[in-house]
Amino acid sequence: MNIAGVVLAGGKSSRYGKPKMFEMYKDKLLYEYSVEALKENSISPIIISTNEKLVPYFSKNDLDFVIEGEAKEYQGPLYAMFNAFSNRPNNDWYFVLACDTPFITADFVKNMIERVANTNVDAIVPIQSDKLQPLFALYHRNCIGKMKEILDKNNRKVQLLFSEVNIMTVQFSSDDLIFKNINSPNDWI
């Protein structure tokens, strides 16, 4: 079984006003928190799903890039995941993390990865306060076909995938900061 890491970093950051994945928090760029949590668990390759304009701003060390085509820029996380997975189809699982989550930890990644063994589900998704966290989840390559079907119908919601595949949910405490993402400058307050 092999697991690739996929960091979603191609959004517009429209609420933030500039590419938030390059904001500093405690001497690290935001996207580096996700990359390091994956690296500390020996996940390889680590793929950055982004757009052409942002690639020059990333550190290139040990990272792979999947670029959203010009015609498909900013199509949302479901498209970004499908694009990354289908461009790297030789992995069994894909661990998806958002690029704007400075509280992600290697322990969280390890906890989630341990659930992959001896399971026959298509996705392993954290849940916090009854809310699924699809941008902190593991997806089996079996999801690629269902993602394509959803996208071909011009749907973009990741949640639609969960009614099409077999998922396992993993409960997390409501006060756990892991899932806090930074969408606007006010989120730092």
From TrEMBL:
Coiled coil: none annotated. Its EC number is 2.7.7.77. GO terms for molecular function: nucleotidyltransferase activity. Residues 5-157 form the MobA-like NTP transferase domain. Keywords: Cytoplasm, GTP-binding, Magnesium, Metal-binding, Molybdenum cofactor biosynthesis, Nucleotide-binding, Nucleotidyltransferase, Transferase. It is an enzyme of class 2 (transferase). Transmembrane segments: none annotated. CDD domains: MobA. GTP binds at L8, A9, G10, K20, D100. Its cofactor is Mg(2+). Pfam families: NTP_transf_3 (PF12804). Signal peptide: none annotated. Mg(2+) binds at D100. The N-terminal domain determines nucleotide recognition and specific binding, while the C-terminal domain determines the specific binding to the target protein. This is Probable molybdenum cofactor guanylyltransferase. The lineage of its organism: Bacteria, Bacillati, Bacillota, Bacilli, Bacillales.
